[in-house]
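Throughout our pipeline, every protein is held as a single compact record rather than as scattered files. Nothing more is needed to write down the fold, since each code stands for a local backbone conformation. For reference, a complete record is included directly beneath this paragraph.
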Amino acid sequence: MMMVIAALLLAVGLMGGAFLLSKADFSPNVNVTSSAPNVYVSSTPQENSIGVSATATKDVAPDLLEIAIRVQTQSDNAQSSQQENARVSDILTGKLKALGINDSDIQTTSYSVDPVYSSDYACPPSGNNCVWNSNLTGYSTTQTFTVDITQLDLGGSVIDAASASGVNETFVDSTSFTLKPETRDAVENALLEEASADAKTKAQNIADGLGVSLGKVLSASEDNYYYPSPVLMKSDMATSGAAAPSTQLSPGTLEMSTSVSVSYSVGS
């Protein structure tokens, strides 16, 4: 009986193997690769084009003066340092308002209270193990104002007022002639129109020279450049006979420049 069962199992195995062999794919595993580079085919052919650029420049008289004034006071403790800073700042703002500067044109841009240390290099008699010793000597309070001036001839008077508000406590950190935002926008728009028209004329001339027709704009970009003029400062003796000099500022002009780059399609 055991022999009969074994023979049956063998027969079934052979039949199953024959069936699997008949269904098997004897082709070897093949990985198909292409040595050709990636090619991207567009449904529309690339248009022929002409690229040009043009620049428009203009010298503009500034209509805004920005002056940064720093009030810096120091005392043995933080509270007295702040109180002294407030006192000098009140004197400063009072002088500025007396010149006709509006409250809205005087802005505090930074305020800080910091400890002040003195350092000394100490060495023992042996000369070894020398160290730096830091000692707290007081506190410094610093407040920075930005003053916007539209009446430019007041610039020198503002600087003089700042200098007179506190002895060795008020400092003019920067002076810059610039443009009001609306003025700058108007000048930039005018320069954009001028540069764009110049670019189109250049492109048309190139197309005429090549014997092709100028088509639509494919792309356009612009860059703006702004070159502030250096501030010239001088002190003149007051004509009233007083010995105190007065500061005068020369605004000069500001150079604004706009560049436009344009690409046009061309036809035969």
Notes: The chain is about 30% helix and 40% strand. Residues 181-210 form the longest helix (30 residues). The chain has two domains: 49-61+182-267, 67-122+129-177.
